[in-house]
Amino acid sequence: MKTSFTQTMIAILAIFALSSCSKEFYQVLTAESKSVETQQTGMVYEDENCKITYNLWAPHGNAGFIFYNKTDKNIIVDLKECFFVFNGYANDYYLDRTYVYGKSTRVGIGKSFGKSANYSEALSETLYGTWLGYGASTSSSASSAIGVSQSSSAQVQSETNASIEIKEQDKVCIPPKTAKLFCEYQILENIYRECGFLLAPKKSGVKHLKYTNANSPIKFGNVISYKIEENGSSVVVNNDFYVADIANITAGSFTTNIKIEKDCMGKSYGTSQYKTVCKEQAPNKFYIKYVQNAKSSDKY
Q1: Predicted TM-score (pTM) of this structure
Q2: What does the buried/exposed string (b/e) look like for 73-110 if buried means 16 or more CB atoms within 10 Å of the residue's CB?
Q3: Which end of the chain is flanked by fewer CB atoms within 10 Å, N or C?
Q4: Per-domain boundaries in the chain
Q5: How would you classify the pairing of strands 22-32 and 268-278?
Q6: What is the pLDDT of residue 176?
Q7: Closest by Cα among 116, 73, 74 to 92
Q8: Closest by alpha carbon to 173, among 223, 93, 228?
């Protein structure tokens, strides 16, 4: 009995020892574009009819966009003709899904091309939540233009009579002087690795991988098709991006604490108050968090 207890304690201590050797890191990727202008609050494409704004900042990158109708007429976005393109491979925005509201249980089988993102989590870490007025609890089904794909059209359903089914629309109407959010795909699922590019760099020894549009290993973008009212001619917008800079940094270098002098009413705090913010945050950047064991032989 004593031997068994001793072995158990040794195993637990070994786990703690291994855990203590593991450290958190962040890979920060910076994107540039020749078709989209990088501004302080977003990456913006604009023509005479619309303004399309991107904010990539999210775990694994947010490929979604806000489409603003500048005209005095309805703009129709045709999702069947809209695609997220990653390194030359096109992923459909229209996935022919059915949304269920109310008390229901749904089990889905199948798969879809491309990587759909959990935007109920991702939106809380972007500016989109603030823009929409939903805050950190923004639902991924806040509008017909927002959705999370977990399966293809092959599904097994079990639901109560209290549920309501709404079929996904292949066309999205945007009224004059209003905007809608389109969220479907994350940019990159896993960190980018290259020989000589340390997974566990020191705080003072951060290395940056620099690329141009010609040699970047990560290229992505959106093909967006719209028209002015139903009988209008189709306009196709190509917003292309490429990753120009990649850096692996320590968790300590990723964030910093900022002292807050006053509350939202302008009243000074009695004691020092601090807020943790990300030093790297920008609309043309995104990040992936990962853990690296210091004793691992896998250095790159």
Answers
A1: 0.74
A2: ebbbbbbebbbbbbeeeebbbbbebeebeeeeebeeee
A3: N
A4: 24-94+113-148+170-293, 96-110+150-169
A5: unpaired
A6: 98
A7: 116
A8: 228
